[in-house]
Amino acid sequence: TKLGIVGAGAVGATLAYAALMRGVAQTVALYDVNTAKVRAEALDLSHGIQFVPMAHVEGSDDVEVLADSDVVVFTAGAKQRPGQSRLDLAESTIGIVRSILPRLVEVAPDAVHVMVTNPVDVVTYAALQISGLPPARLFGSGTVLDSSRLRFLLAEHIGVAAQSVHAYVVGEHGDSELPLWDSASVGSVPLLRWRTPDGAVALDAAARERIAADVVQSAYRVIEGKGATNYAIGLAATRIIEAVLYDEHRILPVSSLLDDYYGIGDVCLSVPAIVHAGGVGDRVEVPMTDAELGGLRASAEAVRATARRFGF
Amino acid sequence: TKLGIVGAGAVGATLAYAALMRGVAQTVALYDVNTAKVRAEALDLSHGIQFVPMAHVEGSDDVEVLADSDVVVFTAGAKQRPGQSRLDLAESTIGIVRSILPRLVEVAPDAVHVMVTNPVDVVTYAALQISGLPPARLFGSGTVLDSSRLRFLLAEHIGVAAQSVHAYVVGEHGDSELPLWDSASVGSVPLLRWRTPDGAVALDAAARERIAADVVQSAYRVIEGKGATNYAIGLAATRIIEAVLYDEHRILPVSSLLDDYYGIGDVCLSVPAIVHAGGVGDRVEVPMTDAELGGLRASAEAVRATARRFGF
Amino acid sequence: TKLGIVGAGAVGATLAYAALMRGVAQTVALYDVNTAKVRAEALDLSHGIQFVPMAHVEGSDDVEVLADSDVVVFTAGAKQRPGQSRLDLAESTIGIVRSILPRLVEVAPDAVHVMVTNPVDVVTYAALQISGLPPARLFGSGTVLDSSRLRFLLAEHIGVAAQSVHAYVVGEHGDSELPLWDSASVGSVPLLRWRTPDGAVALDAAARERIAADVVQSAYRVIEGKGATNYAIGLAATRIIEAVLYDEHRILPVSSLLDDYYGIGDVCLSVPAIVHAGGVGDRVEVPMTDAELGGLRASAEAVRATARRFGF
Amino acid sequence: TKLGIVGAGAVGATLAYAALMRGVAQTVALYDVNTAKVRAEALDLSHGIQFVPMAHVEGSDDVEVLADSDVVVFTAGAKQRPGQSRLDLAESTIGIVRSILPRLVEVAPDAVHVMVTNPVDVVTYAALQISGLPPARLFGSGTVLDSSRLRFLLAEHIGVAAQSVHAYVVGEHGDSELPLWDSASVGSVPLLRWRTPDGAVALDAAARERIAADVVQSAYRVIEGKGATNYAIGLAATRIIEAVLYDEHRILPVSSLLDDYYGIGDVCLSVPAIVHAGGVGDRVEVPMTDAELGGLRASAEAVRATARRFGF
Ligand SMILES: NC(=O)c1ccc[n+]([C@@H]2O[C@H](COP(=O)([O-])OP(=O)(O)OC[C@H]3O[C@@H](n4cnc5c(N)ncnc54)[C@H](O)[C@@H]3O)[C@@H](O)[C@H]2O)c1
Ligand SMILES: NC(=O)c1ccc[n+]([C@@H]2O[C@H](COP(=O)([O-])OP(=O)(O)OC[C@H]3O[C@@H](n4cnc5c(N)ncnc54)[C@H](O)[C@@H]3O)[C@@H](O)[C@H]2O)c1
Ligand SMILES: NC(=O)c1ccc[n+]([C@@H]2O[C@H](COP(=O)([O-])OP(=O)(O)OC[C@H]3O[C@@H](n4cnc5c(N)ncnc54)[C@H](O)[C@@H]3O)[C@@H](O)[C@H]2O)c1
Ligand SMILES: NC(=O)c1ccc[n+]([C@@H]2O[C@H](COP(=O)([O-])OP(=O)(O)OC[C@H]3O[C@@H](n4cnc5c(N)ncnc54)[C@H](O)[C@@H]3O)[C@@H](O)[C@H]2O)c1
Known about the structure:
The structure is a homotetramer.
Chain A: E1 2-6, H1 10-22, E2 27-31, H2 35-47, E3 56-60, E4 71-74, H3 90-107, E5 112-115, H4 120-131, E6 138-140, H5 144-158, E7 165-166, E8 169-170, E9 178-179, E10 185-186, E11 189-190, H6 205-226, H7 231-245, E12 250-258, E13 267-276, E14 279-283, H8 290-309
Parallel strand pairs in A: 1-2, 1-4, 2-3, 4-5, 5-6
Antiparallel strand pairs in A: 7-10, 8-9, 10-11, 12-13, 13-14
Helix pairs in contact in A: 1-7, 3-4, 4-8, 5-6
Bound molecules: nicotinamide-adenine-dinucleotide (4 copies).
């Protein structure tokens, strides 16, 4: 199996590292316009090969390096700068997609494509139109990362392992996203009914608001502090890649083209979906309160508005 | 860190293997009355040491080999033979516990103890009384295994990854156990509302009954076919060990001494509980239907009745 | 990728377990004539699926279950009983090979085959003749296990990690096998020149003899104590499988058809060889003393003699 | 167990990531003077916690965060800029060591310290003097990274897995370092006697020279291309940490205070040494040619000269 990565920046290279450490593919190929950088990243990754499951690492400024990839993760783009919103990045990113994707589809005709570049929902929508690929075969990493941030915060707040918290952030990977509180659970207890040892409701409205805001702010705070976010997204993307390469049928909140999901359609947005070898499968209709559904609709509208601004 | 295992039979040795492969402890020590067998198991395990994270394996017929263990897993006992119920095994097993546990507590005074030997709920209750250990520090592997069987069956039935299915089997690790259907979920969708792609309810009453029966029958079927069950329990026990050694605060359906859990007390029974470095922490009050609660009460009664038969 | 296993006995099932835990293949299929057993093993393995990388486990008494395997490991055969030599097993095993292999090659035409059943060298030779497969595509697990036993013993003796000891056992997987002392090294120091902290030679002739004997006796001692050897061989076989599936080009002492290896040919015997996706590649001509070469020749003769007894 | 990291730059944060992914410690604590950065790195790492073995991540600008660490890896310092040699960094780095180490030893009195900051040999020597720690408990990552680069290059050149190549780079982690060709081996064949399939010597003098130069140039090339080296060093350091935390007694070319190693003493330099829970143990006297020994002596002299320039 072969993992192809477009863009050897903070996200692309870290993702290659995580994928190598977990041994998900026998070949990991990186493509980037920055020749010196992509070669240096491939070299640095190769130097550690003795310590990880066997794999070959390649880096090149020629898309051909991604030939016959089984999965391609798209991370090329401008880094989000402090203060900059994800939508500001859209225009230039779409240009990059337009310049690379057609050739990419040619050299890796059977690949499943995972878009990571921001604004990921708009980029995914544009990429579908540009490539004409079937919607199952191209989707965005969406709110898999945001959901893992939510779980981390909830786990800390409640005092259980993140693996025992089941909760999704849905909608735009961005400011209009929202946690699905109503359906969230902790070890089969509805999250909203979880109680502290002294009997109080663990997650009152104030706590929910604070945590929801924290999730949205997380990326900004990390970027402000270190200039990029790369470690968690590297693992989140690796999880998605594994779901595809191992045909896991795992439910992950990826950004896919919706078609009458609670009436929402013609937009790429994150909702829980079954991810398998063919890409993204059935979307999962998680029960939502009216407020949550309203939030999701608003998020869809926000993403659609941006897309329209760029002619999609 | 040191993992101690009492009993180097099918379960004990396989558990040692899984623990070594996952690198959970630097020392894995096996104790068994069968001198030749325990040495042979330790030797076989040692021969593979080159292929796993570094560890030392020891095997002895002297309990002293378990000195200073951080976690001790108790698997000594008679194997369940085809046709034999888990309760039939109780008497002899309790004798074994009585003969080993006091000395074990002496040599490994700070260990957390995980009982696996069947009938695990009764054995756990007896072991608490025999040892006088605080209930947090001694509990049974309970229905962690049964729950993983349930998840496997549900995952197959529904067509998603087992990791996306959240459901517990509670009660006795045995014939009176029951799945908690009402609180079970698949990717944040209540299991009972999950629909097949064509819109039908995925898990009607008949399917539920069949799957619940399958879970209970699983152990019997495996034992009939191969004379023991060892692989899944080896992984389930390793998961519990990791929760303790890594202080995970993971919610697992282990068998612990209940004290007013929905009014149920003075019995060891599996309900979801938070497992951490100190052993078993808060029990999690999963919402149940009246029927489920009734089933749990009946299961408690069944376990209590057996315990009483053996003077506990 | 798909791993096929012929024989769901102690070795076959344990190997499946190790392979599942290490996530080497998406499908692990077991074939055995014992219908009840193979189904039970597959069921037990499946029950643990939640705790390992995603995979599907299948068990059947129909060879068809192995269709399209990438690697097939052959473990069917009679277990070595206490006192019984590996050669005693030959006749019945060859019969099994004859009955299964042709059909197996039909359903999995592109597989690399790894023979484990004893006497592995004779069985491998016979299997090549029976199947007509190119010698690169069918070889035996050989002395990979014995070498890991040697490394474990040397590591204990010298006081370093097994991973820092580089030494091979070559020849027959059996009584005539021999360690290659002269070329063995510990952290780039020739093993024979390694000194204890107080300056003495660490491995004098007596120690070498004792350790060489220990390696040969290991299997017997384990079998005497527990009735089978399964854990270390499960890991050793998994290492070989990884070398093939990941195209590692790793040097492993597998049993392959020799053709003028130091003049030795027309026999299957273990010498270090490069294992990759195509199976076994170039044999590695390790420098040997005259005594070592003599030992290898004698071992070849022993294996050939047995083969001849069975008409090969 | 607790892993402490001083410096949350490219190396420190990547090392934390690798250590988290491999599950080596339950707590990973980062300390850095750059408050915003260290918090951001800890946050980013925390967000991925759901995807790795359970651990707690902490980041702070107060050394206290490293309290009671079992291992501390020191990566604080200025990044090597394109064109800058490792020795140029010495002065400022030693200042950093002087300001942090005494307090660090106070809060983590039992830790084993692994220095990574460059020029690592001089920094290690200075740190031993500044701290007064026993030489076993403080050493540098040395040429573990360089050796893995050498193995990668040799593996590529020869066509075998890096894991089958056994070779060390010794001396300064820097321009005067040298590969030990004479004792290097590939699958028990002396490297210098390895032949290509067509019978030619695989590694003639020209190839050796090129590869040796490549190893030295590697860091420069990576830094030129991407501004830092972090991935391979993250894995190399994790390997060292595992050797300590798992008491592996693994032979690794770390930089330790030599005392009559082939007559060389009073300098920190990399030679193969046994690494275990107590830190660095016996140095391994690998046989060397006169030229190699001369090279090592010259390297010692180079390191000593730099140390002297900084008053050590
Ligand atoms: N979806 C998420 O959850 C998520 C999380 C983190 C980052 N991101 C996004 O990922 C993207 C990458 O972030 P980063 O931190 O790695 O940025 P980066 O600037 O470090 O890397 C981007 C890389 O893309 C390369 N590139 C630019 N144009 C290219 C082209 N035409 N062809 C090939 N390569 C090209 C650049 O040379 C650079 O190496 C950003 O859009 C960021 O917002 C998304
Ligand atoms: N709780 C679960 O989920 C679960 C799952 C599988 C098996 N089990 C139970 O685990 C137990 C062990 O099963 P097994 O298949 O390994 O059985 P086994 O017969 O293979 O092994 C039991 C071992 O205990 C040893 N033993 C007996 N008395 C001893 C004593 N006094 N001191 C030390 N060792 C002693 C025996 O020598 C034997 O090696 C059984 O009770 C079985 O029912 C529980
Ligand atoms: N090469 C090595 O390093 C090594 C190490 C350990 C064991 N072994 C060998 O592996 C073999 C298996 O050992 P084991 O302990 O698993 O034995 P086992 O008796 O436990 O298992 C053998 C299995 O083969 C099955 N079998 C028999 N005939 C068959 C047929 N015609 N088709 C399909 N399946 C058939 C049996 O039903 C049984 O389940 C033995 O020959 C043993 O000596 C080799
Ligand atoms: N030994 C090796 O094999 C090897 C390999 C790669 C890098 N390195 C060395 O590692 C060091 C770090 O490299 P990098 O790329 O991470 O650099 P970097 O600049 O990215 O990070 C260095 C970090 O140290 C911090 N720091 C500076 N002064 C400090 C102080 N007084 N207290 C706490 N933190 C302080 C900085 O804030 C910064 O975050 C360099 O010296 C580099 O040469 C060594």
